[in-house]
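Quick one:
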Amino acid sequence: MPTLVERALAGLRGDDPSAFAEALALASSFFEADRGWTDGLVAPEVADERASPGDLLALRGELVRIVRDDPRGPRAAEAVYALGRRDDPTLRGVLVGFLREHRRGGDAGGTYQALIALENLGEAIPWESDLHGFDSEAENRRVAERYLDRADRAGAARGEDRPPVTPKGQRDLGDARLTRHALGRFVERFGVEPGEAEPALRAALGRTRRLGRNPTNGAVAVLAVFRGRPLVAVLRGDSCLTVLTWPQFEPRLAEFGRAHVPRKWGRFLRRLSDPP
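Output:
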């Protein structure tokens, strides 16, 4: 019989709506129990089956994947709600990225959940009143706009560039966790010096197109371009597991749900390397 963590991970990776709803409740409750919040858990059964640090990271990774893979999709806002129960300051970039995706006419409910999650992480949110809520759509959009404007000004004062706008259909995965294996394969397969590997791979992953998902293990393949060459990264959750050249990946297309090379291949690649 699967454990509660295994059920949660399966629900987050699968397509069944009821299993996904249960997975969200379990993940949220595991995160809250880890913080010592055991009263009023949505899934009180987690109190008898605590998650290990590795389990918590796995749940976090799957939720981050959902947000990054389709930030405007219906599941992303629900994943943000669950992430808001996790005490993890490194989630700030994911949450701010979600807000930026919804900056112009996006999901107002998801915007509110992201603001609450950021507030739970200690961010100062410029609420207009103490009576803010999920249903105050116009107010929540204004608050998000003010928060992002302030974040942009603070970044400019520190000499940081404003985060670039990722072209439609592409995803910025530059802050993924890079495994030692992925960096080693990048050095080996793309001729990069070891000392340059991490920043070079992060830069390449700053603009990616999704190729597909392996239904067996939940891994996602994305395409990037490095020095004019196609680069395929395989990720699970928020971790980059390995890096392949296109000839190495092409025979595995079917594993990731693709029968053929993407249509208009040349244009597909150019859009990843042309200026945004």
